Amino acid sequence: SKEEANPEPLRWQGRGTTRNLREIVLGRCYSYLAEGHAELRDKDCLKIWESLKAAFVHKNPCNATTEDYRPLMELTSHPVPCNESLFWSRTYDLVHLYSKCNHHFLTLEDTFLGYMLDGLSWCGDPSAPGINYESCPKWSECERSSGSVFWKMASKMFAEAACGVVHVMLNGSIEAGAFRTSSVFGSVEIFNLNPDKVSEIRIWLMNDIGGPQSDSCSGYSIKKLRNILEERNFKITCEDNYRPVQLLQCVHNPDHPDCNLCI
Ligand code: APR
């Protein structure tokens, strides 16, 4: 009988490059532009795809640098209006549900660059064909993985651009605390907000409906965040379960007492 060849063992622990990455990025690029954002009129989707490709194809996926991604960042940058930046940590679904219905708020994933690459995976391989579709390094696998270098750089630029009142949506049902210094928000974004441009930081601390209230505005982790931000001369406020956002959570939990509209 014919001996079956063993499949190559997976080299990395993370998900491989998204199939049809080129088509997905181009499709998202054209559809974002078609929404008619006037400030993006002269953006060139093919050029944008080429610059993403040049950043990682044929490269070692654990040796990504900010220089690799600089051209991509330059081709896709656009201003974010003051008072509209919305940061988040551990609230991915809720924050994007909210920013989709309230157009006065913009998360990184609602900006041109974030929109194109949200949820996608990509990494290079020094040997042919230059792209690894089987596996990519997880963020924890190496310090400079393509994903972490890219998202940290995009987050840094998003934070640098923020002005006026900025908001952040945190998750009070996380046992380890709503604010974690190891998160992208806690390690990159708060240190790249500019105190000369940002007048106030408003925290929305959301608990899962009926879920554990592990943390609150008066809890230890928010105190730590407050200390870091006050040290940097920011004005900071915190609101537990900001009602307009809670009402969105209530769409999925209409019968829960916290969702009673008559109180
Ligand atoms: N491995 C893979 N992906 C990660 C990792 C990791 N170790 N850490 C973070 N991410 C990516 C994932 O895509 C995840 O959905 O970042 C996303 C957010 O992670 P969270 O821990 O929920 O939050 P945080 O690290 O604070 O990042 C969110 O950064 O993306 C920007 O502006 C955005 O304010 C937001 C913040």
Quickly describe the structure.
This protein has nine helices and six strands.
Structural topology:
Elements: E1 14-15, H1 21-34, H2 45-56, H3 66-76, E2 86-89, H4 92-101, H5 112-117, E3 135-136, H6 146-161, E4 164-171, H7 184-192, E5 198-206, H8 220-231, E6 236-240, H9 243-250
Parallel strand pairs: 2-4, 4-5, 5-6
Antiparallel strand pairs: 1-3
The structure holds adenosine-5-diphosphoribose.
Share in helix:
25-40%
Distinct small molecules bound, one entry per kind: adenosine-5-diphosphoribose
Determine the N-to-C terminus distance: 74 Å
Unreliable stretches: none
Main sheet attributes: strand count, strand direction, barrel closure: 4 strands, parallel
